[in-house]
Amino acid sequence: ATPVELEFEDLPETVFTALTEKVKSIFGRKQASDDARLNDVHEAVTAVAEHVQEKLSATEQRLAEMETAFSALKQAVTDRADETSQAFTRLKNSLDHTESLTQQRRSKATGGGGDGLMTNC
């Protein structure tokens, strides 16, 4: 049996955990009166709404940037496909009209009436 060492790392604090701690601290005040508690709830809801609004704005901006980049990439791919198609057509036409120098030509048909050919059907 081989001994195994386990190492645990603390995860870095994320925005979500910071927001959670802020909401917990607001709700954690036990000595506040009812009016103060309602105010605390209002503050917590406001903090959550502001956080969501910030994230939504950042997401909308990122989406707009991605749409612009996608449009540019799509146009580049379309242009490249058109160029490739045109180059292929030019190459095909060129090859269709070029004689092969490595292959012998077929001998010309001399014709004939076909009198000597008969079949037994």
Automatic annotation (TrEMBL):
The keyword Coiled coil applies. Residues 49-76 form a coiled coil. Residues 91-121 are annotated as: Disordered. Keywords: Coiled coil. Residues 110-121 have a biased composition (Gly residues). InterPro entries: Capsid_scaffold_GpO. The keyword Nuclease does not apply. This is GPO family capsid scaffolding protein.
